[in-house]
Amino acid sequence: MTTESTTESSSPFTGGLDAHLPGLRALYEDLHAHPELSLQETRTAGIVAARLRAQGGWEVTEGVGGTGVVGVLRNGDGPVVLLRADMDGLPVLEATGLPYASVARATDRDGNDVPVMHACGHDMHVTCLLGAAAQLVAHRDAWRGTALAVFQPAEETGEGARDMLADGFAERFPRPEVCLGQHVGPFPTGIAVTRSGAVMAASDSFRVRLFGRGGHGSTPESTVDPVVMAAALVLRLQTVVSREVGASQAAVVTVGALHAGTKENIIPDEAELKLNIRSVDESVRERVLAAVRRIVKAEAEASGAPKEPEITSLGTFPVTVNSAEATEVTVGALRGALGEQAVVTLPHPLNGSEDFGLFGDALGVPSVFWHFGGAAPEAFAGVDLDAVATRGLPAEIPVNHSPLYAPLPEPTIELGVRSLLGAAGAWLGRAE
Amino acid sequence: MTTESTTESSSPFTGGLDAHLPGLRALYEDLHAHPELSLQETRTAGIVAARLRAQGGWEVTEGVGGTGVVGVLRNGDGPVVLLRADMDGLPVLEATGLPYASVARATDRDGNDVPVMHACGHDMHVTCLLGAAAQLVAHRDAWRGTALAVFQPAEETGEGARDMLADGFAERFPRPEVCLGQHVGPFPTGIAVTRSGAVMAASDSFRVRLFGRGGHGSTPESTVDPVVMAAALVLRLQTVVSREVGASQAAVVTVGALHAGTKENIIPDEAELKLNIRSVDESVRERVLAAVRRIVKAEAEASGAPKEPEITSLGTFPVTVNSAEATEVTVGALRGALGEQAVVTLPHPLNGSEDFGLFGDALGVPSVFWHFGGAAPEAFAGVDLDAVATRGLPAEIPVNHSPLYAPLPEPTIELGVRSLLGAAGAWLGRAE
Amino acid sequence: MTTESTTESSSPFTGGLDAHLPGLRALYEDLHAHPELSLQETRTAGIVAARLRAQGGWEVTEGVGGTGVVGVLRNGDGPVVLLRADMDGLPVLEATGLPYASVARATDRDGNDVPVMHACGHDMHVTCLLGAAAQLVAHRDAWRGTALAVFQPAEETGEGARDMLADGFAERFPRPEVCLGQHVGPFPTGIAVTRSGAVMAASDSFRVRLFGRGGHGSTPESTVDPVVMAAALVLRLQTVVSREVGASQAAVVTVGALHAGTKENIIPDEAELKLNIRSVDESVRERVLAAVRRIVKAEAEASGAPKEPEITSLGTFPVTVNSAEATEVTVGALRGALGEQAVVTLPHPLNGSEDFGLFGDALGVPSVFWHFGGAAPEAFAGVDLDAVATRGLPAEIPVNHSPLYAPLPEPTIELGVRSLLGAAGAWLGRAE
Amino acid sequence: MTTESTTESSSPFTGGLDAHLPGLRALYEDLHAHPELSLQETRTAGIVAARLRAQGGWEVTEGVGGTGVVGVLRNGDGPVVLLRADMDGLPVLEATGLPYASVARATDRDGNDVPVMHACGHDMHVTCLLGAAAQLVAHRDAWRGTALAVFQPAEETGEGARDMLADGFAERFPRPEVCLGQHVGPFPTGIAVTRSGAVMAASDSFRVRLFGRGGHGSTPESTVDPVVMAAALVLRLQTVVSREVGASQAAVVTVGALHAGTKENIIPDEAELKLNIRSVDESVRERVLAAVRRIVKAEAEASGAPKEPEITSLGTFPVTVNSAEATEVTVGALRGALGEQAVVTLPHPLNGSEDFGLFGDALGVPSVFWHFGGAAPEAFAGVDLDAVATRGLPAEIPVNHSPLYAPLPEPTIELGVRSLLGAAGAWLGRAE
């Protein structure tokens, strides 16, 4: 699949898009250079609200569930379609070397000063939805119904969708027929990938505090060394996936952060780990969670820890499920927008997680979520795309959350806008 | 051994000390409540200089090797004796619950905001040396010669003695006959411990940076996980002492700090460890250092690391060696000051490290270093003191560098002053 | 699915089977009680040959590829159908407690005396194929063509099919239209499971010798301890699946055997491990094999091994692939034989391995391989069979190769015979 | 120290020894070529008894505590002196390449066929004691008293001394004034090493059985893998010495044997480990034993083991303690026999273990045990002997229990005889 094919395809409402692309690119670079941590997306939300208002037609509500922004574009009788983009960045130190790379820092909720980067592409999501929003306004005469543009905070922490829903979302805004969302990813530009049923994994995150007994580095016999305890724990946790999960069962146990001690010659009192667990089947999930808890407890006992470890939830994402019929409709529309061969059906769920599904669940309406490619197609030379799901990406392609992750602005922005418009077009009423 | 015995013993120059003890205790509590990181000891140095000046007689030089303070008390012809105290605190969060516990924080050289605590008792050292200094002034008619009171910064980082020496110490101050120093420790109050020959261990500290390849926590197959690499390294390093060092050889390998990652679902790019290695024999030291380097390299290879680990020295302490004859003289004097049974000869070196020995080495004069007890004797009920060296301390006694470490001000201050005066008295000339 | 449904279904050639079941059960118990190691199946082969001869009609060839037996039943013009059963047992100490449990022992090729058990159900395979062979003879008037009954040795070691083929199989026996094979497994009796495409995994086995330097257990510093080296290797190998294989990629790395040392106080010179690796995709297989080699090498380096480890292949099984069209035909026939709901389509390959596929590959004809259940349906109460593939079996159900594994003779024998006859019947010509 | 010095020294009773050395060497080579496992020393015991009888004067008792042999040489009134040699070999495959290397095999008590080697030098001990016995007979006119020559079985398993004592040793033989014993070791020939107080370590041996749940290697999720459990245990056990034993405390934890599984693709039901633990201080010993038990239990829990591990004692050796006064006397005599510089005082106990001390303990008399060198002095070129204890041996010198261990017959046999005679001479009465 190459991007040329997109020029052959026809999306609705895309007329005049070309002229807006330079502006969207500038917007994208600005957002990329100014990422904000989850629940701190005030600058981004301000830009979103201002842009929607400037487009005209949108009823804009700010501060929904914290920093969320909802635009409602009423355009006559017809279906209501929800389009969602997430806005938050990540505490990652950007290493892309791009001219518009972020040098931002922020204070996280633990009070630490951390770097911030749009390492997951939410800047692209915001840009594409603002671009699509403008086209919906510009082509208002071509469709009927109501568009809901939802700019959600705090997707990374699993809080944003929940917070917006808890803030009266269902009562305050029109009830949609369908919820549509997209995510940029390490696929070739021009490609969209999705599947019916489970499309993204469940995610369970924990903070584990291991308690030892500190002392001087030269007298370990007077201490219970939490660094050794943590190391033994991390290695033992590898056996959950290698020994307790079947080859055909999907699960990942990642220790994303491990912190203990300050000085080389002081054995600290404790160690802190942050764990993330992925699964796509509830019984596998339960087994993995039980195994993790069992191992955490036993490794502390092996060390003779003076106190049981503390395990605190850092959030849970459900499995993201695409409704079968709605997916069929939407995939057809994406094929129309991107080209017949451009939409790849995944053989199994992607392993990332999302809180997008909470909207459809809470509103009782179908959801469809897809990924679209942001990586140079050349990087995939000789790669069998159907095999990527089985074999993984070529090692040199940076993935989401990497300090090197950055989608190509061109043609990704254009394709993201076309995808949203294509998908929305399949659901909105056509004006006669 | 109990503290009662000290009343029976006789130190020189201690007349009138009782009246000063409340003031010394207030000074100690003030120093304890205001610890400063290595090379940042400006408040402490200011207090030291002001107190010496207020005592009269001392020529006070500030800013020696940064924040070092040197007092010279010339008192006629006679031997020159150097008495040394170190001044710096540690980045430890105090947990003693004492009324004068530290709540101080400071910015370390990596720019991090850290807690600070006098977790190693240097506040006690400063207090005792200032107390002894006052007694030397008060009893000036009883001795002849020159006293050098050296208040050294940055012992914890192994920089202070070196910096003071590099700042012209040998040229700027009188050359001593002997260098004397003491350290408070987790022994019963009333006891001093030392030995001829190696009395404290060599120490080698390193920062190790392990390089992986970051990515999303759900796709470890696209990454090289530095957290797992670090965990495997920490566990493998345990085998250096357990398998490559003989039962009768002394060595410790401690990973005092391990830091990697920020978020649970982002696999970071690298991990950082801080190691400290103790040894008392050069060939064992070399074998251990070689083994550590070998294992660091191999564990990175086992992970398929994209880049070799970086190993940077964080400082080296030599073995602290007590000169045989000078130790005999000084131990005799300590017995006189503390009681005949109060001085315990160590069967082997203590495992901590010191840069005190650099003064004697650089000046070409003998050194004597001893430890004195600061813990409640009751805590040692039923403990065979001679066996402590072999069997270690009772587990409930906090050791230096612990967040719970705090010597009893009474009678430790008095005993520390008496020890210094006793030892110095053995070397200074007596006035006829 | 329960076994009752089988009474409703109709297999061809099964008339009169009931009368033979007691005899087949006695045969099964006898085979179970007398298992033989791979390439030592002389008793079993003798029984097979004698029984085929006794049935009449079979041309029996013994000693094909060692202990293999091939029966050819020519029954007029028509298709040739190959039915294969494997005959070897395993070096497992039986723990079923059955009246006919094995107490057999044998000398393996390393010269060790080992227990032997039919822990993989090959006794069931032999029994069912002999039972089906008798029915084919008895119902000779109902079909046309040629039946090939292949009793293969040494499936467990991956040598048997290769040896039979190397022994001129293609030239010596009629060329079949299709190769059919079955395996009993821990599914409920009455159920068959299979899929089109990859149905069983590739398997790569290795012996790894790690070299240390032996010595007295009290002086590890004079040795390089291969036990610690092996332990570190086993733990590190867990990270291959946990970190280098994606959640949706199938791979297993098992260390099935680890041997080092004889006495507690002698550190041995070396350790030996036996590894088995499963995968169903070639690029995943290559990555895993490379990672295993990398880790073996690096862990030896971490230990300072005096010599590089030795890695020797112990055999390779290819992926077992079911031909699409042939599978459709055969599954239809199995549904006819066992009941419409009795045949479950697997969502992904089973993780075991087989050398059955070598026949079809070498002969250039399609293959179909299925598993049939041998476990009490009650054990699966409340278990969603469709979910077994994702979630694994209930923990209390013994699986193949377990010391506790034993299919229920009733009704498993009957169902295995019916399955073979049903599948064969779909390919053989019908007599008019 | 070189062997020349021995020619200058004068031992008692050595006249005529030179003529016997060729015979002793032949005896040594014969014993070396025919090692026997513990409690199976029938050939060796037979040779010993025959030789003693041939020397004349010895009352010989065989079968003391199994295969033990005791010779009593009564030579008038005077002190009784016990000289002890141990006789058993080890299950080690000899790799010395010597012309008289062992190719013996035997059946151990688990029924396994194992190689046997005199890897600990007990053949040397037997040879030297027989040589000394002959000299005592030959020089009967030069001394008065009674010599007890004790040839003990099963030292390696810690059973021999216990069994001989349990067989009425105290009642059946004269009570000695002193028990003397010696051990050949990897020191230069010509050197003897010993110390007052603890001279060899305590030793505690255990068999640990870890219970998992077996199954097919391709479905680890249906099993509890005991190989991974064992690996995690071995690595965790390293932390006992590295973290729970102080730098100046002596302890060793060795896993000398680890066995699990038979085939690469069968996950076994259990793993067996054999552990040996050394210590020289009772409180360190207790801490280490408790830590080992704690870790064994916790690692089984971390794996979710279906059953608690089984820990069985394989024997215990006490600390071998040399009586202070008796050591002074004996060291003086050894200096006389070997040369003034030839006897090195150890700074701390050697880390091996012995059951020799049980004789003195049970009989209530002092014991003295020393080691004598059997290695080529050239191998120690440039090695500071005083430092060997601290730094360990040069890596290329094989140590006891190594497949390469073999003392030089010349001059080790002569020196071993001289040492025994020298030591005994200090205790026996001199004839007037």
UniProtKB/TrEMBL annotation, chains A, B, C, D:
UniProt-recorded Gene Ontology molecular function terms: N-acetyldiaminopimelate deacetylase activity
UniProt KW Ribosomal protein keyword: no
DNA-binding listed as a keyword: no
Chain ranges of the Peptidase M20 dimerisation domain: 205-301
BP GO terms, sorted: diaminopimelate biosynthetic process
Entry keywords, A to Z: Hydrolase
Matching NCBIfam families: amidohydrolases (TIGR01891)
Protein name: Amidohydrolase
